[in-house]
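Dear colleague,

Following up on yesterday's call, I've attached the two folding results inline so they're easy to grep. Please treat them as preliminary; we haven't cross-checked anything against experimental data yet. The first protein's sequence and structure tokens come first.
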Amino acid sequence: MLNRVRSAVAHLVSSGGAPSPRPKSPDLPNSPSSTSAPPAVAPEAPKSPSARPGNWSGAPAKTSEARARFSRPTFLQLSPGGLRRADDHAGRAVQSPPDTGRRLPWSTGYAEVINAGKSRHNEDQACCEVVYVEGRRNVTGASREPSSSQGLCFYYWGLFDGHAGGGAAEMASRLLHRHIREQLKDLVEILQDPLPPPLCLPSTQGTPSFSDSSHLVGPQSCWSPQKEVTHESLVVGAIENAFQFMDEQMAQERRGHQVEGGCCALVVVYLLGKMAIIVRNGEIIPMSREFTPETERQRLQLLGFLKPELLGSEFTHLEFPRRVQPKELGQKMLYRDQNMTGWAYKKIELEDLRFPLVCGEGKKARVMATIGVTRGLGDHNLKVCSSTLPIKPFLSCFPEVRVYDLTQYEHCPDDVLVLGTDGLWDVTNDCEVAATVDRVLSAYEPNDPSRYTALAQALVLGARGIPRDRGWRLPNNKLGSGDDISVFVIPLGGPGSYS
């Protein structure tokens, strides 16, 4: 059985405009050295025949010149020479972690390759960590015996597909898992307690409390019973909040740290026997769906309808099969609005001559004729070409989170989760990925952990193709991917028994 999630994005921001201000987490680390796992579960790096030795610093740059430097995931450990090879658009050498005997957490396989000249540098970024969460003391406020409970560990994989620059993807790869850790701190004791989550946590210092709040509510008969909230939904909420905090931090730091562009995010979190997967595009295991101007048309149109000032005098929230012409004023044309999935006819008026909020089809679909994604991190400075209209209010920073319970299935060593950026999925389909998985994994012993890196490399090479006179070509002579390609292969057998 092949288990995989297609990816490239999970796009993110408040659908009603800029997010409301939130207090900055005082103890969120700002440097990579202060994160992640206790020594007992330090992450390892996988074998790879094509690896390059070296190092890379993920610390935030202090100047625009430093920010512009080409950087790759820390776990690749690329030397200066390795960085030059990784940045070579002509050679497009596949990069994987070095063959040092240490492996990425969970024996995860990873491979990447730069684009064929689409952008100056590789705008994909990746992160693979084991993160330790130490709970805040006495969160629940319940009187209990001195607790010997420990913190929680979660495994984390993230792919970030940047656009209009790699700054947002690089920042998200360094910090998003720390925001998730911060959001989980209040939940450590709660998640380890079999009782239902408490309705309220104790008030923090400086927060007023009321001993008698009966005057604030009406008779109990007017209220429905308390809603059931599961531990799983608390983790999902923590992840959703983490994405919003990450987007807000990008907004705050975009000037001082040159956080250019935006990025799509594909993230997997393994915690307490379950995987929370934030993704776009999936069929074999339907864990995801596409987020594009077409799939989110009604959400975008509704926002344009409710807040017409966001459209200025340049756009209309209505959709027509094609651009309306002045000569068609007074005629009836097919259209649909935010409430419609089908089409109807309306009389064309002057304001219908404006450019549609959502235009184009498939890969050419765009929001405000500018951007082809509707959920992501960053893009705070993005404006319509030759206009002052911001596009950010139409982009959502909230991911779609789906949960896969690993404890409910028996997984063999050939069961894997494949995460890839658009560079993979633009030229590869599910059946082709399944065939590659079967072909590559069958050539290795089931207990050989290097098989997953070999599979990641094979998937990247299969999507890249080989150089010919007319560019990079696949075996069927079709064009290979000219985009950056990044692939994680996660064996669903996991680090041990699921308990």
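Below is the second protein, in the same order (sequence, then structure):
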Amino acid sequence: MTAAARRPGLSHQNGDCSMEVCYQLPVLPLDRPVPKHVLSRRGAISFSSSSSLFGGPDPRKLSQRRGGISYDSSDQTALYIRMLGDVRIRSRVGFEPEPRSSHPYLLVDFRLLHYRPGRAGPVSARGVRRLLSFQRYRHPSRSACRQPNRSQLCVLDQDYAGQAKCMLERAGSWSFDIFLFDRLTNGNSLVTLTAHLFNHYGLIELFQLDMVKLHRFLVMIQEDYRRQNPYHNAVHAADVTQAMYCYLQEPKLVSSLTSFDILLGLLAAATHDLDHPGVNQPFLVKTQHYLAALYQNSSVLENHHWRSAVGLLRQSGLLDHLPAEDRQSLERRLGSLILATDINRQNEYLSQFRSHLDRGDLNLENSAHRHLILQMALKCADICNPCRPWELSKQWSERVTQEFFQQGDVEKKHNLEVSPFCDSQSNTIADIQTGFMSYVVEPLFSEWARFSNTQLSRAMLRHLDLNKAHWTDEMDPKTHPQGNQGS
């Protein structure tokens, strides 16, 4: 019998020091009282008979059931026991639930990639419906249906809830560690953070939002991000939402944005990459993906994210109480924000923004100008990783490169031309990141600094310079002879 030892610890890898959340579950025979040394406070323990902690030679052969015990320090006996049909999978750090998405997804299903309406093939009807973005396959949320929620904490501990709450008090800090926050919330960082920001800005009362519908909507958003993606997943959406919150606090925006602008900005940040397939637009086009045909090879992913977001808004009924004209206006403007994240249109938006700054004619009392600022803020939030502190920026760089290389491996496997930056044999993280920082990130954030001219904007540029120097030092000396000076 062992007591639960659950505490944040320091993990040192490659010279970096980062917070890790470690779990050790107690082994609790169900026919014995809970020991005193476990009863330090009122709490609960959940467990699974499919876990190796139950001592079976092959846990997969055990009946897959889940349960929980609540107890009180004044009583050594279990107060409540429940058993539910469920499965949990043990991971390297603690326990994590099965993927919350209701549809299993492999990286690429070429039956779907080559599907065209009217052409016979092995594609299932459900697969086709899954690809129809605006008329998407509508799966019921587990929370809404009151089915067992697999995203519940395996070990319920008020300490971790308290740590997450403390982090939310600093949600406007540029050094906010979204990875730690995601662990503390058991993979629910997007739901938790977005709900907090809605409450912080008073949007729930102001727009008379139903709390049940809001929670259902946020859970559906989080479920529609594909956890299999190393980069384009719900944690990235939470990170972009946190960055958007930082920008919304900039003095010029605080004094000019309306509550409707703030609502739009947060919604766009949370949904801007909804249902991202983990591959880029050129891949969808050259594989004749149905989405590429649907959106005529123009902003394919961004259109899909927007239509998916609108579909979930309508499915949840979150805004059904608003006048139809207001709902339609919000949906259009939401699309305008999400479409602005198309990296292929970067120069278009940047030139427009730069021209306004050169002329000095930005008037934030003008709704069109405010909307342009929201577009630029979302664009910055979407690619702000190189402007984060090195410990955070490095993790994001590794994740996005891993996703690139996964796409490249699929392209090689199917004898397709390998997309730029996706060949693990000819590209490195350092090469990709230094080029991205120089040609995409720096021009955008330099103009944003001209506009905001705040401590935050200057700090982001400093982080960008430092991170770029880090990657330059790691570049291959064979292709960049000066890359390893000082190493």
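For the second protein, one point worth flagging: The beta strands are 7-13, 16-22, 43-48, 65-72, 75-85, 88-90, 95-97.

Best wishes,
A.L.
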